[in-house]
Amino acid sequence: MDINRSENLVRKDKSILMHPFTRFSDWQEEIPLIIDRGSGCHLFDLEGKSYLDGTSSLWVNLLGHRHPKLDAALREQIDKMAHSTFLGLTHEGGILLAEEILDIAPDSLSRVFYSDNGSTAVEIALKIAFLSQNAHLSSPSSSTFLSLTCSYHGDTLGAVGIGGIERFHDMFRPMVRESLKSPAPDCYHCPLNLKRETCSIDCADIAVETMKTHRDSLCGFILEPLLQAAGGMIVWPEGYLGRVSKTAQELGIPLILDEVATGFGRTGTLFACQRENVSPDILCLGKGLTGGYLPLAATLFSEEIYRRLSKNPGIFYHGHSYTANPLAVSVSRATLRVLKEENPLGGVPEKEGIYRDFQARLNDLPRIGNDRHIGLVFAFDVFDPGDTKVPADSGVMNSIRMRAQKKGLIVRPLANTLYLIPPLTVTGKEFSAMCGILEESMRETFTTN
Length: 449
Ligand SMILES: Cc1ncc(COP(=O)(O)O)c(C=O)c1O
Hints:
Blueprint: H1 3-16, H2 24-29, E1 35-39, E2 42-45, E3 50-53, H3 56-59, H4 68-78, H5 92-104, E4 111-115, H6 118-134, E5 144-148, H7 157-162, H8 166-169, E6 180-182, H9 203-213, E7 218-223, E8 227-228, E9 234-235, H10 240-251, E10 255-258, E11 282-285, E12 297-301, H11 303-311, H12 326-342, H13 348-361, E13 368-374, E14 377-384, E15 387-391, H14 394-407, E16 409-410, E17 417-420, H15 428-448
Parallel strand pairs: 3-16, 5-6, 5-7, 7-10, 10-11
Antiparallel strand pairs: 1-2, 2-3, 4-12, 8-9, 11-12, 13-14, 14-15, 14-17
Helix pairs in contact: 4-12, 5-12, 6-11, 9-10, 13-15, 14-15
This protein binds pyridoxal-5'-phosphate (PLP).
């Protein structure tokens, strides 16, 4: 253990770096974890202490760290070439990966445009929808998007405009073109004050009416299907996606599904939209596309959209230096092969059982509620003592997080929501350990806070 090395790094970090979504003052006070390496569902710090990766490194890792087949794919590619541009050139991996993604994607999609992160996949979707809706006109008439409250589609300005999380997005509103918003189907905080047991998913009618009213000015409806992750792990009631998608498509409004977080198995099926048999006009993919190894994203769209763009403008003025980076592409192809050959989704029911036991053990904790899960995404909320309408404050949430970290589990609360999103390959033993550490950390926190 080299304490001087750690201390030097921390000092340097604090004096020259800014970390995403991390309050400056909190970071200055925290003793940060310096991650050195990973293996399976574990990350290790510089001192060799191991931590379970309870967030899949922010929802990107699918198959664990250092998967031998993914490592091998990268090694093989590095011996050939690290990068060559995709502007006016192509490469075998990029071509074959596009074919492989289309093979597993909804049938409505037949074209792939690569970029390098989820936000850019979304920007591309917005631009393509805008161009396609206005391709037949000499001047654009449709330029507004419809999205949901609590939505998160990334941090670039187009994505911020359609985003609906006040604390992330409101400060940037003066800079962006804001979308129309329909209320998120969040049953615990029902926008219509209804009860799920007796409602008819009435919130879908608001989206439907908005689409009908604004049909001529809308160039797309963008949704995170079934799970609004950053917005608070909001799991939708069954039926909402199917209903609003049907209306969008009947009205000729491009349906854009952002599966950056939900894609590649996270919700229990390869893509979340498959659970309601929805085939979008545009699909955004990122995060798990490379198994969590390297930045790569893809925006998929329909042949009809391609046909319209081919006529006008006939070129897409958008691209990134690292579009279709061959290293990312090679590890992505390996990821898709492993998903197919090893079927990690087969383990979902076992994890659901472990989670149910965990929830049952928490029955004596009245400060916990709004329990929800879909596939390998498990979430619940923490409240003030004695009031399940008042969210626990950041001090409580941070105390749980830090206790868990000390005990060897990495979690990252979203406001008062705690969640576990393990890699798909997590073993039953590892997942039980994650639940156990979370339970202990909460019990300890609640005795003092
Ligand atoms: C649904 C969704 N879309 C887009 C993004 C943005 O992806 P990235 O962070 O790779 O830009 C995220 C990131 O969490 C996301 O959850």
